[in-house]
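Translate sequence into structure tokens.
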Amino acid sequence: MCIRDRRRVLRPITHDELEQHNTEDDCWILIGEMVLDVSEFLDDHPGGEWCILQHGGGDATSAFERVFHSHSARRLLKKLAIGTLVSKTQSPETTLEVERPVNVQNSPPKRKLLVYMFLLIMGISI
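Result follows.
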């Protein structure tokens, strides 16, 4: 499933591809269904780079949710997102493009529903 961010398309990423990015110089993590490239963020993480590196190439969702993260930290997830995890039963060629509106309040009702469905699927609360 491809998801179009306002500036880019988040591409489908397999478990195997995610697992290959587990070093300080090349670190990807999974939070929810979003794959994030956190390589450039490691030095800036307030809890230290080891908090992220221990989950490099894998699922950091539960570790992320166990600790308080501010709204700005949660917004940063969207900036670091490079793809969405493709399940083993899902074909990587399957794409769905969903554009995130700038202002949900001014969106037409169908668009709001699409946005809320996307957020629900991604596990992000408004």
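Note: Residues 12 and 92 are 6 Å apart (CA to CA).
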